[in-house]
Specification:
Layout lengths: L4 H8 L3 H9 L18 H16 L3 H7 L7 H31 L12 H6 L2 H13 L2 H12 L9 H4 L7 H21 L14 H15 L2 H16 L16
Helix pairs in contact: 1-3, 7-11, 10-12
């Protein structure tokens, strides 16, 4: 008995398009044709088609199925490999679900590492501060990231340069810049005592300290206006000129105000 293409596809629980594709990629041998030109599929074709569809349902790619050949023996090694891949996928999906749960529950940002910025800290960061933190997470190493994460986990400090710095106009006058820089330097000096790793955040950067510093510096130049950058530079100079053993750089980030 022979079946048509439609009949063999229905028996195998697949589609005409799939059967034709399996012919095209060499997975399913072409059957003989009747005198009228119609294909006639045999039991051997049906069994091969059932094997292909079953392996595809299990998660094997057509390339992997092709590599197995037409041997109907139990593909134990391939199945073990697939099982390991599926286990890794399940673990990754479970981790993603756990992260999604935190994001949904705490309304935390999606572009930052899980738990890096708590919801209350994200709410008090300006857009520029938040963007700078995102950039830092891409270039800092574990020590630098942990230092900023620990700082952000703390309650909002009574820093001297929060909204005042955020609202600083590009043409702020000299006395305003000087006064703000002095207060910022004083505040940062205290932060470096409590969080010494903030003074050297680039030490263990994966791409090297120079690359991390250049990347963060470029982000600062693009995210903040000239007056804000000037205040940061002045604060940094004040810290370097003092007796403070730390040599911070950059002097300010949104996490350190």
């Amino acid at each position: 008995m022979a079946w048509s293409t439609r009949e063999v596809a229905e028996l195998a629980g697949t589609s005409l398009r799939a059967v034709r594709h399996y012919h095209e990629v060499g997975l399913l041998p072409e059957p003989e044709r009747r005198a009228n030109g119609y294909k006639q599929y045999t039991v051997a074709h049906l069994l091969r088609l059932l094997r292909i569809t079953r392996l595809a349902e299990l998660g094997f790619s057509l390339t992997q199925i092709s590599a197995m050949g037409e041997d109907d023996d139990h593909p134990a090694e391939a199945l073990r490999t697939l099982d390991a891949e599926l286990a890794a996928t399940i673990e990754r999906l479970q981790r993603v679900r756990a992260e999604l749960d935190v994001i949904l529950r705490d309304a935390t940002p999606t572009d930052l590492p899980p738990g890096f910025v708590p919801a209350d800290a994200d709410a008090r960061l300006s857009d520029a501060d938040r963007a700078l933190v995102v950039v830092m997470t891409r270039v800092l190493g574990p020590v630098g990231l942990r230092a900023y994460a620990d700082l952000l986990q703390e309650p909002a400090p009574d820093g001297p340069a929060g909204p005042e710095f955020d609202d600083l106009p590009p043409d702020a006058d000299e006395p305003t810049r000087r006064d703000l820089a002095e207060r910022l330097a004083h505040h940062l000096r205290a932060l470096y005592v409590d969080h010494p790793d903030l003074a050297h955040p680039h030490t263990d950067a994966p791409g090297g300290a120079a690359f991390a510093a250049q990347t963060v510096g470029r982000a600062i130049r693009e995210l903040y206006n000239p007056a804000q950058i000037d205040v940061m530079r002045r604060a940094d100079a004040l810290l370097r000129a003092g007796d403070d053993p730390a040599a911070p750089g950059p002097a300010r980030s949104g996490a350190a105000r």
